[in-house]
Amino acid sequence: MTEIRVQNLQKKFGEFVAVRDSSFTIPDGSFFCLLGPSGCGKTTTLRMIAGLELPTSGSIYLGGEDVAFKRASQRDIAFVFQLFALYPHMNVRRNIGFPLLCQGVPAREIRQRVEETAKLLRIDHLLDKPVSGLAGGDRQRVALGRAIVRRPLAFMMDEPLGTLDTEFRDLMCNELRQLHNRIKATTVYVTHDQLEAMSMADYIAIMNRGSIEQMGTPEAIYNRPASMFVAEFVGSPSMNLIHLPASLAAGSKWVELSGERIGIPETREGLIHENVVLGARPEHVRFDDNSKLRAKVLATEYLGTTQIVTVAVAEGQVKARVPAATKLRTGEHVGVRFASDRLSIFDKATGLAIRSVLHEGIAHG
Ligand SMILES: Nc1ncnc2c1ncn2[C@@H]1O[C@H](COP(=O)(O)OP(=O)(O)OP(=O)(O)O)[C@@H](O)[C@H]1O
Ligand SMILES: [Mg+2]
């Protein structure tokens, strides 16, 4: 049982707060992604969980025990830096077994565990081959084998696929996720790549400037972003954020754009938001000549089955993802509609979603 529970974790470097009062729970056996832009505190958080960095304050419960101020060697966590650094002069068997050798595990046990690991990765037929002669995919599997052979309580991975080219990354993402499905060890995976996180994670925590902005399943984060930051960070092209000219009255069920009423998720009674921002994913925008909300087509980007169409409305630019077969010409005028039940609304002053379901699907604090 390796649930990891982080409570009010804080890290300061001098006066600078790198990680601010973070709390989250990583369920046993789940694949958890820490996602955020460069410098937001992902590596620092991961290093504190692994014991490579001491927190300024806070707790880290590993299977029920607070290990926040214990040494890394007392935590049985594997920290995977890069997945592709192998010892070229050794064969597959020795590469995989190396961490056990360093730990002083007896030779017979090493042999057995290396063979088990190789079977799991389906490279047992390559055990006595030199790694220098292996194809790329097999090399990655060997590197993975070396990371998992210890069978630690949990894995920490810091952008392990960082320097791989796109095609290889996709392959390795897939490989890693399949491996996780087989061994089910709690994994914390750091990335700044939202596609990587969305495709691999059971749960994602989005960090921004040292704070956790939202936690939840990829679906919850994509469909109900808790803040404008999350809305823009996740999704490609990102969510349209349309700044509305009017304030939003308590209990409103719609907003008005160029005389067209647009249904929105009902706001909580009693709250008045001075400046609101409407959020619409490109796939929730469509063209309808009967809409009073008029737009001019600025550009189209063909993507095979769909196309991204950029249009200008009075309030700014909007991107729509529509079927590639829809015929549209640059300069043409169209009517715009939104899928009302899929919209988000944000309070411009706080940047937070109005009446959004915060931290859904995973405990917070
Ligand atoms: N040892 C240190 N001393 C001082 N500042 C540090 C130290 N380590 C990290 N920082 C600062 O803390 C902040 C968070 O750093 P961290 O490495 O955790 O970010 P990150 O999210 O992993 O970024 P990246 O995506 O670039 O790897 C950054 O502003 C960084 O400059
Ligand atoms: Mg980092």
Predict the CATH topology of the largest domain: Rossmann fold
Q: What is the number of E strands?
A: 20
Estimate the helix proportion, in percent. Answer: 10-25%
Global mean pLDDT: 89
Question: What low-confidence regions span 5 or more consecutive residues with pLDDT below 50?
Answer: 356-365
Largest β-sheet summary: 6 strands, mixed
Number of separate structural domains: 2
CATH superfamily of the largest domain: P-loop containing nucleotide triphosphate hydrolases
* Strands side by side in the biggest sheet: 6-7-8-3-9-10
CATH class of the largest domain: Alpha Beta
* Percentage of β-strand residues: 25-35%
Helix and strand topology:
Layout: E1 4-13, E2 16-26, E3 31-35, H1 42-50, E4 57-62, E5 65-66, E6 77-80, H2 92-102, H3 107-120, H4 136-148, E7 154-158, H5 166-183, E8 186-191, H6 194-200, E9 203-208, E10 211-216, H7 218-223, H8 228-233, E11 240-243, E12 254-257, E13 260-263, E14 276-280, E15 285-287, E16 294-302, E17 306-313, E18 316-323, E19 333-338, E20 344-347
Key attributes of the depicted protein:
Rossmann fold, OB fold (Dihydrolipoamide Acetyltransferase, E2P), 6-stranded mixed sheet, 8 helices, binds adenosine-5'-triphosphate, 23% helix, disordered C terminus, single chain, binds magnesium ion, 365 residues, 5-stranded antiparallel sheet, 20 strands, 2 domains, alpha+beta
